[in-house]
Specification:
InterPro entries: Glyco_trans_2-like (IPR001173), Glycosyltransf_2 (IPR050834), Nucleotide-diphossugar_trans (IPR029044)
Number of strands: 11
Radius of gyration: 21 Å
Helix content: 25-40%
Strand content: 5-15%
Pfam families: Glycos_transf_2
CATH topology of the largest domain: Spore Coat Polysaccharide Biosynthesis Protein SpsA, Chain A
Number of helices: 12
CATH class of the largest domain: Alpha Beta
Strand order of the largest sheet: 1-4-3-2-5-9-7-10
């Protein structure tokens, strides 16, 4: 795990409200740009692309996100739909004021997957581009995605931390500088027909009260459904999206690793990740693998009373020694704590879902 990165890289419909073909039935528009022509459709041309942005309690970032989408240069005709997922901070009103068409969901029982499905149901373009309420597409973003879509139904682009933000050691952001098999909807374009054929997004990480509070992998599952159905893929390096940076302390960094409990379930849903993401079809990253090996060695040494079993902890000890030299004791200790939490979470998820990931 590197500081501030998504721990995955480490967020079926069945005719319900989660189905992109029916989800809009329970929604209503609360805002619209002045002439109903957003992002290059003022001349009356039908949108080729609908940009969908799910948003919940995003008052701090949504206006900038909307302005960045509407400032696209050289893009095909497009419209913008912000889906206000039952926000309590005026997110929808701020998005409408900034120039977006806003669809509102009135209950908080669904996560960003449900919100994206509602946006797809409201889409008018032949393609749907996704980004998030805390993301700021650069001016050439949509043009680059659209160019790559000439030969693909599923196109992704890079995500980088907002370069204008001050970034401290433990702050949270999202970075995907190169193609990833996780297919993050922070920066994704998909042919609408392929999207509907894939069945829409599924918020499969649920919470009893407000599901899901911490979404995980719904974009990955959708993308691989489309790929299995024949969607061609492409990477658009010029389609850059910049992600907001959020304050977080050391404790928050450590606890964020608990999300890795969902990784084995994601791998079970998308077995292609064993080939595309995991090393040796089993290992998520060196940090979690060496931590797991060290823990197993400690247990074995204690159970057998044979200190020689501790040899399995040497790779972990070597990593910590190297970190001590590079970043000092405090950062090393916090990172090590995060690795322990992450490795334990992977173990719990692996046992729960009978799908081993280290």
């Amino acid at each position: 795990m590197t500081d501030g990165r998504d721990p995955r890289a480490p967020d079926d419909a069945g005719g319900t409200a989660d189905d992109p073909r029916t989800a809009a039935d329970a929604d209503h528009v609360v805002g619209r740009a002045a002439d109903d022509a957003i992002g290059g459709t003022a001349d009356g041309r039908a949108p080729r692309v609908t940009v969908v942005v799910p948003a919940r309690d995003a008052a701090d970032t949504i206006e900038r996100a909307v302005r960045c989408v509407l400032a696209q240069v050289g893009a095909p005709p497009f419209d913008l739909v912000v889906v206000d997922n039952a926000s309590r901070d005026g997110t929808g009103e701020l998005a409408a004021r900034a120039g977006a068409r806003v669809v509102r969901l009135d209950d908080r029982a669904g996560g960003p997957g449900r919100a994206r499905n509602a946006g797809v149901a409201a889409a008018t373009g032949s393609h749907v581009a996704f980004t998030d309420a805390d993301c700021y597409p650069t001016p050439g973003w949509l043009a680059a995605l659209w160019t790559a879509a000439d030969a693909a139904e599923l196109v992704a682009g890079p995500v980088a931390a907002d370069p204008t933000a001050t970034r401290r050691t433990w702050d949270r952001t999202l970075e995907y500088p190169a193609p990833t098999p996780l297919w993050a909807t922070a920066n994704l374009l998909i042919d609408r027909t392929a999207l509907l054929a894939a069945g829409g997004f599924d918020d499969w990480v649920a919470d009893d009260e407000e599901a899901p509070r911490r979404p995980f992998g719904e974009d990955t599952v959708l993308a691989w459904r489309a790929i299995r159905a024949g969607a061609r893929t492409a990477w658009a390096p010029g389609a850059l999206v910049q992600h907001a940076v959020f304050p977080r302390d050391a404790r928050g960094f450590v606890l964020h690793h608990r999300d890795l409990q969902h990784m084995p379930s994601l791998v079970a849903r998308v077995p292609e990740l064993r080939r595309e993401l995991l090393t040796g079809r089993l290992v998520l990253n060196a940090a979690t693998a060496t931590t797991t090996l060290a823990g197993a060695s400690l247990v074995l040494a204690a159970a057998t009373r044979r200190p020689a079993a501790l040899v399995g902890a040497l790779p972990w000890a070597a990593r910590q020694a190297r970190a001590l030299r590079e970043v000092g004791p405090r950062i090393t200790a916090v990172r090590a704590a995060g690795e322990v939490v992450g490795a334990a979470s992977l173990l719990v998820g692996s046992v729960q879902h009978r799908t081993p990931v280290l």
